EAL domain-containing protein (Erythrobacter crassostreae), 275 residues
Amino acid sequence: AKSEGKSTYHFFEPALDQQARERRQTELDMRSALRDGDFELHYQPLYSIAEDRFTGFEALLRWNHPERGRISPLDFIPLAEETGLILPIGEWVIREACRQAAEWPEDVSVAVNISPKQFTYAGLTNTILQALSSTGLAASRLELEITESIFIADVEKTLSTLHNLRSLGVRIALDDFGTGYSSLSYLRSFPFDKVKIDRSFVEDLGQGGNSHAVVRAITTLADALGMDTLAEGVEIDEQLEVLKQEGCRNIQGYLFSKPMAASDVAELFENSASV
Ligand code: C2E
Ligand code: CA
Ligand code: CA
Ligand code: CA
């Protein structure tokens, strides 16, 4: 019986072992990536319907792994968050985004994703202040995207962090709205500048589901609270039409552009300046 137990144990162990090894390796690789400059930011345009132009770009992290090639943020951000590596990585993202955005026209802003661990990190305000002052980017041109997961934390603390950040002059967007712990009442209680309607609602617009009603409810409430609205993941004209009709103010998605390299953003501005 003893040997049987032992063999069962051995049967399961290698798989667990291997998973742990892979995670450990990815963690080491993330450290090397930071050191070797293997991270890169791509930028996806944020289109304003009223202004009929790109008023900003969302910075999206890309990892060019020397052996594994391009790795999606969905495949390493969770581990970075767990291990705490998201703090140095996120700091790099903030600095890099500010540095590149400082080269853009002054009426164009940059949006940066802030993970839950970064949001609760006491040094975040300082990181942002330093990035702004060293790059010369105006605080009003930086937007922070925060997800609904911040609502599970202590309400008082979340509120005070939000107020601290806003007092720097940066704007705050609530990302992926409608997917997580959200309730419409959070919008009333927290000082967001913008609400980003999650792609899942946009996806089935025009297909007769109830997303249309959800989008209407969100834009109506955001309007009443003086918050800006943006719909994520807009891929086809039909979605754009419904969103316009419902008064959504900004659009992001493949319909306009996929995320692009920083050099392509610069080129976009050069070309439009020469017209
Ligand atoms: P997100 O913040 O919701 O970013 C939007 C994601 O949707 C991006 O995926 C973008 O490429 C994708 N997308 C944009 N338009 C469309 C569309 O029309 N159709 C479809 N199907 N997808 C579209 P990406 O770049 O793979 O990023 C995935 C997630 O990784 C982001 O979701 C965000 O949660 C996280 N992430 C990316 N960069 C960072 C970062 O610098 N820091 C942190 N903490 N998270 C990041
Ligand atoms: Ca985002
Ligand atoms: Ca989002
Ligand atoms: Ca999303």
The beta strands are 39-48, 53-65, 69-71, 109-114, 142-146, 171-177, 194-197, 228-231, 250-251, 260-261. The first strand starts at residue 39 and ends at 48. The two ends are 82 Å apart (CA to CA).
